[in-house]
Amino acid sequence: MDGDSLQVDYVSSDELALRPPAWWAGVLGVVGFEKPPLAHHPGVPITASMTPSLGSQAARCEVWRLMGDAIQTETLTPSARGTVQYRRGGELLFGSLTVDELRFEGNASAALRGATYDAYEQVFALLKKTQYPHLIRVWNYVPDINGEADGEERYRHFNAARQAAFNDCGRSTTGAVPAASALGSLAGNPISIYFLAARKPPTMIENPRQISAYFYPPKFGVHSPTFSRACLSNSAGTNLFVSGTASIVGSETLHHGNVTAQTFECLANIASVLHEANRIVNTPSYSLDGLHFKVYVRHSTDLDAVRAVLSSSLEATTPVVYLQADVCRADLLVEIEAAGVATPH
Ligand code: 3EB
Fold it and tell me: Where does 229-340 have alpha helices with state H?
């Protein structure tokens, strides 16, 4: 690791408006939940996942910020930005875009596939142009993800088009693929994607308890999802990104209808990913308590049950944000992602 360090923070949207200009200097991007926050700063991408936050906390947003002396963020004019808003600093680039399916031709599935393909094509073109070739982490929010279009689940159409775009843009669809999350936003929203990319190649981590998603058997979709279980960025302080993690062992969903058991299984999978990351870096550096968590709950009425599991498994000081979102298999009730730094031992 060298140079700057990347931090993620969950800040209330109101507080954001009070931050001084110097604080914004290192901000690479801001992600609101139900909607983009009103606060802004010239040149900083502001987006939203369109997944409402749960619990009593005031509206919050996710802030990706570089700390350190070597920050070289820039302010781009709107015309230079194109469809992908982005900001880069040192080794890393943050980008975001939304694509509306209604702009694409054909039947419902063709429009969804067209929009997804277009989004990824634009991301890859930007990475080429800016010379941040390595996609390390992608967040995908697809409206009505479990709905059907022309006889197939919308998530499966998304997977087909995502994989096609990776292929056609000369990228691998197995192995060196980014960590990711894919969740359902409310129907009627555009597809919303944000991402981090790096100049240096990252290190991908798989979970020994799970079949790699890109090798799932065809019964989960003819075109497998294109993501790694986790990614070490090798570029900045917040250097472990754990993908959205669900109650899947092997390739099967476990604990149908039991949200408490599914939540424990998610944490067991994350613990397994951390163990694998520690094995690969050859020092026991990552632990559950060094991470920030984002928890997606399908049914808001399950919030207390999910929260009880996290409270019993994590230190009280570990930051956890809860959001409502559909998960990309109809039988999954919860999905948990995480990011964080190595803690010294
Ligand atoms: C899974 O393990 C659960 O399609 O990008 C998790 C993280 C999931 C990312 C994606 C899907 C994706 O298959 C779903």
Answer: 259-281, 303-313
d(CA 212, CA 226): 9
pTM assigned to the model: 0.96
**Rounded to the nearest 10 degrees, how much is the dihedral formed by the CA atoms of 275, 277, 281, 284?**
-30
**189-211, pLDDT tens digit by residue?**
999 999 999 999 999 999 999 99
The verdict on the CB of residue 334 being under 6 Å from ligand 1 is: no
In this structure, of 94-98, 177-181, 287-291, the range with the lowest mean pLDDT score is 287-291
Residue 236 confidence (pLDDT) above 80: no
Give the pLDDT confidence of 133-160 residue by residue, as tens digits.
999 999 999 999 999 999 999 999 999 9
**How far, in Å, from the CA of 16 to the mean position of ligand 1?**
30
User: Does ligand 1 have an atom closer than 6 angstroms to the CB of 224?
Assistant: no
CA of 156 to the centre of ligand 1 (A): 11
Concatenating the DSSP letter of every residue in 203-215 gives: EEE--TTB--GGG
Catalytic residue flag (residue 335): yes
Rounded CA gap, 141 and 94, in Å? 16
For residue 214, how far is its CA from the centre of ligand 1 (angstroms)? 10
What count of residues does the chain have? 345
- Characterize 46-84 residue by residue with b for buried, 16 or more Cβ atoms within 10 angstroms of its Cβ, and e for exposed: bbbbbbbbbeeeebbbbbbbbeeeebebeebeeeeeeeb
